[in-house]
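Below is a filled-in request sheet from our internal design queue. Each sheet records the structural input a requester submitted and the sequence that came back. We keep these sheets so that new team members can see what a complete request looks like end to end.

REQUESTER: design group, bay 2
PRIORITY: normal
MODE: inverse folding
CHAIN LENGTH: 184
BACKBONE (tokenized):
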């Protein structure tokens, strides 16, 4: 009698294990992995839409915060590695701080201004004292004091990874877009 119960219990445990394993495989096959989502964005966009997204958001930050742009560059950056699609628009902008501005107060003021205009403040960047991270409309911006020149600040902005055009053979790198922003 015991052997019969033991066999039944063992068979039931094996059946449940097989059913759960099979269910896991089915669910895994139906649900795309994060890498597959990155390889095939749901709604791909053009190069122009990619640049418009990130440049428009950077212009909004510059305008709302009253930043005085010294230089600005734009780059299509791979979201996977150094070359392969999809790409996101990236901006690196330097701006001058007002004379006598204290970074600890100045960058908090920028954050407060942006938050009142719909930007969401995120965690501060790890390696930038007084820096801040904000996001809105799928664009993330990091704003912080320049490490080597206390009279300057840096704005880095990154758009969505939805540009699937192939730029692996493009010779271009950073594009100067300083003229699209107000200067000092």
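RETURNED SEQUENCE:
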């Amino acid at each position: 009698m015991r052997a019969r119960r033991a066999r039944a219990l063992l068979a039931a445990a094996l059946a449940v294990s097989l059913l759960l394993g099979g269910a896991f495989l089915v669910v895994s096959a139906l649900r795309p992995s994060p890498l597959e989502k990155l390889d095939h964005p749901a709604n791909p966009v053009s190069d122009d839409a990619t640049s418009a997204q990130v440049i428009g958001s950077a212009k909004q930050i510059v305008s709302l915060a009253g930043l005085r742009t010294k230089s600005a560059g734009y780059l299509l950056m791979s979201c996977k590695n150094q070359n392969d699609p999809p790409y996101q628009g990236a901006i690196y902008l330097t701006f001058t701080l007002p004379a006598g501005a204290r970074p600890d107060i100045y960058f908090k003021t920028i954050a407060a201004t942006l938050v009142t205009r719909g930007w969401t403040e995120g965690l501060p960047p790890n390696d930038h004292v007084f820096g801040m991270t904000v996001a809105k409309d799928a664009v993330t911006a990091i704003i912080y004091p320049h490490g080597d020149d206390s009279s300057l600040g840096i704005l880095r902005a990154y758009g969505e990874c939805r540009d699937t055009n192939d730029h692996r053979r493009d010779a271009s790198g950073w594009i100067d877009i300083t003229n699209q922003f107000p200067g000092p």
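SHEET NOTES:
- The mean pLDDT is 86.
- The chain has two domains: 1-31, 47-180.
FILED BY: M.R.
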